[in-house]
Amino acid sequence: MDTPIYDFVKEYLEKGTVRLHMPGHKGSPLLGCEALDITEIKGADDLYHAQGIIRQSENNATRLFGTKRTFYATGGSSQCIGAMVYLAMLRGKKGQPILAARNAHKAFLHTCALLDLEVVWIYPEEEASLCSCPILTQQLESILKSMEVLPFALYITSPDYLGGMADIKGLSEVCRKYGIPLLVDNAHGAYLRFLPESLHPMDLGADMCCDSAHKTLPVLTGGAYLHIGRDALPFEKDGKNALALFGSTSPSYLTLQSLDLCNEVLAEGYREKMHGVCEKVKQLAVQLREKGYFLQNYEPLKIVLEGAKMGITGYDLAKFLRESGIEPEFADADHLVMMFSTENGEVDFKRIENALPPMIAKSTEGERTTLPFRGEQVMSIREAMFARRCTVKVEQALGRICATPAVSCPPAIPIAISGERITEEMIRLFFLYGIEEIDVVVEL
């Protein structure tokens, strides 16, 4: 598969051209990558008006993912989340809310504030952690039946931070029945397209989704995709304008080159490599269970240890790894998350197995990072996020109105939604995630 963006930059470098254009480093090495870092010079195309090499490369990605259209982004899934919600909103009617699972990334909240959207939140029917919000198809059907005004879209996160995967096929069928598009934050699942049997949202019925290419594929940080489904409304028409609305006019050409080169990687034996690493993850999971570890149901490239079921915190489990020179993706009071890719070799898996000692499982009272009770929304998200605010200690925030969502990243899932009144349950979670201060609305 051709790599038009990388080839252009490489040829430009070889010419030894005097650079009287941005960036200011002029190709001089400081980090070592500057020579390949350019801007929108003649022939380099323009990400948001792509007609040349970027359009050619995006067409390659479109074929690889089997979509109606796949767009590049250099602002991560955060940029793509804003774009796809905006695209769905354009085709909705005034006054329609958006229906969303409660474990949404804070980028979704920022989007709702900027677009002044009302959100109807879906909470799980059973107890779930802050990071998870499993939605059953019958639950969705019941919610939609009960709504006086249908939403302009359903927004979900799948896979979630703990590896939970939604029944996208079932949810998409319900959405289609009610004539609303399904939007999926698939930030952790770009690789799902390249499993022996694809589990990618676009192959399961989603109308739009975003992938953080950099999270699971060999792409530089910030590289992402916005995918438009084959049977979707004509969202692709305004796709570039939507991405431009939420992105910088100076996209990273280093990141664009990595997206471009990734196409070549994906086209040449990547499915076989993916199958191999998935088998290694399965084997490691078996070995850890034999050592007494409780594992949560996980997506193919994640292992999630449930510390709460073993009488140990995820933070302590992470210490075992760090003492052996291994850095996990995420840890909280209940969980430890390890993410893998095709770039993890046999040595990595062996080091993980050796780093985690045998466990003696204990029964506990249950998870501690459960979602707080439904908050009382006393202001809109936009009103709260743009209101006058002050910063207070978390222990002084009871009864105050959340201004900006206070949450660590990862997992970047708000404990309190902007505009919600802060409860004791929320304060408990703030402390569990190490959050000591929060911005609240100054009530006049």
Automatic annotation (TrEMBL):
<dbReference type="InterPro" id="IPR052357">
    <property type="entry name" value="Orn_Lys_Arg_decarboxylase-I"/>
</dbReference>
<feature type="domain" description="Orn/Lys/Arg decarboxylase C-terminal">
    <location>
        <begin position="390"/>
        <end position="426"/>
    </location>
</feature>
<dbReference type="InterPro" id="IPR015424">
    <property type="entry name" value="PyrdxlP-dep_Trfase"/>
</dbReference>
<feature type="domain" description="Orn/Lys/Arg decarboxylases family 1 pyridoxal-P attachment site">
    <location>
        <begin position="3"/>
        <end position="288"/>
    </location>
</feature>
<dbReference type="InterPro" id="IPR036633">
    <property type="entry name" value="Prn/Lys/Arg_de-COase_C_sf"/>
</dbReference>
<dbReference type="Pfam" id="PF01276">
    <property type="entry name" value="OKR_DC_1"/>
</dbReference>
<dbReference type="GO" id="GO:0008792">
    <property type="term" value="F:arginine decarboxylase activity"/>
</dbReference>
<dbReference type="Pfam" id="PF03711">
    <property type="entry name" value="OKR_DC_1_C"/>
</dbReference>
<keyword id="KW-0663">Pyridoxal phosphate</keyword>
<keyword id="KW-0210">Decarboxylase</keyword>
<dbReference type="InterPro" id="IPR015421">
    <property type="entry name" value="PyrdxlP-dep_Trfase_major"/>
</dbReference>
<keyword id="KW-0456">Lyase</keyword>
<dbReference type="InterPro" id="IPR008286">
    <property type="entry name" value="Prn/Lys/Arg_de-COase_C"/>
</dbReference>
<protein>
    <submittedName>
        <fullName>Arginine decarboxylase</fullName>
        <ecNumber>4.1.1.19</ecNumber>
    </submittedName>
</protein>
<dbReference type="InterPro" id="IPR000310">
    <property type="entry name" value="Orn/Lys/Arg_deCO2ase_major_dom"/>
</dbReference>
<comment type="similarity">
    <text>Belongs to the Orn/Lys/Arg decarboxylase class-I family.</text>
</comment>
